[in-house]
Design goal:
2 domains; globular; about 300 residues; alpha+beta; binds zinc ion; single chain
């Protein structure tokens, strides 16, 4: 593993921001945002700007295969893999988090908490029942390596979602409708008034076209759930329709990919977005990526958590 280069954090952030901006332009110009979105699905622990950095680092280094799974050297060790000789780390920004007591009036207020090994929770030094909060202190640069820079034990359990769900299954449909219910929405398969589906915040309903093929219904459901999560309090839908549709279809694409639903409709997603965005597609996509990833993570995270029950 290489040692840290002598750059201050401010310089690193500056460099990264610049590269990020350039990378997005390059990405959208080369029509590669599909590649970006497929990459995002395996990376939800990282922020979307780090995701870009990791992907473009691979391109800069001339890797044939894009980066797929990045982890720190120690995390690789834990799964029986080591960093190949001569491989250089990819530096990303990770948030520095501290747990503090947040109980008003406590003398330990805003002070670091104790980690309890047995209960596996952070507790206040004064009183274990106090409210504990996560505080973000800033960012630090952290070295990570892509799986192709490592060797050792084969990795088989890195894509649990994909292995568990092959294509659009009844279980996935049930999980998604259940998740919609958690947000207070009812999913109805029926007459979608000539559309593939729609979401109404007024009636708290998502209606999916009963005539559509099953896999397509699942993808439409994800699209409508993105509207459900992201577009609750908008009142300018007609004005900014392209932006909202870009976001919803971006989420549908990322989530479907992550859950192992692959279809001809990938091309459909991009056509759909470009149709709405027209000349503004590049700008729209750029502005939407952060929200797309956040919402996709929200859905995937909850579905994933549900699988453990
Ligand atoms: Zn306390
Ligand atoms: Zn829509």
């Amino acid at each position: 593993m290489e040692t840290k280069e002598k750059l201050s954090n401010v310089e690193i952030v500056e460099n990264i921001t610049k590269r990020l901006e350039e990378s997005i332009d390059e990405l959208i110009e080369s029509n590669d945002w599909k590649k970006y979105l497929s990459f995002v699905k395996g990376q939800h622990p990282y922020s979307w700007n780090n995701t870009f950095l990791i992907m473009f680092e691979g391109i800069l280094r001339g890797w044939e295969k894009p980066a797929t799974y990045v982890r720190g050297a120690k995390q690789w060790e834990k799964v029986g893999r080591t960093i190949k000789k001569g491989e250089k780390a990819i530096w990303i920004l990770a948030p520095r988090i501290q747990f503090v007591c947040n109980e008003k009036g406590c003398s330990g207020f805003n002070q670091r908490t104790l980690w309890n090994k047995f209960s596996r929770v952070n507790t206040c030094k004064i009183d274990a029942r106090h409210r504990i909060e996560k505080k973000m202190l800033g960012f630090m640069s952290v070295p990570v390596f892509d799986i192709q820079q490592t060797e050792g034990e084969p990795i088989t359990d890195f894509v649990p979602l994909k292995d568990e769900v092959q294509g659009a299954t009844d279980k996935l449909w049930d999980d998604l409708t259940e998740l919609a219910e958690k947000y207070g929405f009812k999913v109805i398969v029926g007459n979608a008034l000539g559309t593939d589906g729609f979401c109404t915040h007024e009636k708290k309903e998502i209606v999916i076209d009963e005539n559509a093929e099953f896999g397509y219904r699942v993808k439409t459901l994800i699209h409508e759930m993105a509207h459900m999560i992201l577009h609750a309090d908008i009142n300018d839908y007609q004005l900014n329709r392209a932006r909202y549709e870009t976001e919803a279809e971006g989420v549908a694409y990322v989530v479907a990919e992550a859950l192992g639903i692959h279809s001809e409709s990938d091309a459909y997603s991009f056509g759909y977005i470009a149709t709405w965005g027209k000349d503004d597609t590049k700008k729209l996509v750029k502005e939407s990526l952060g929200r797309i990833q956040k919402c996709a993570n929200e859905i995937i995270g909850q579905i994933e958590a549900g699988f453990e029950i």
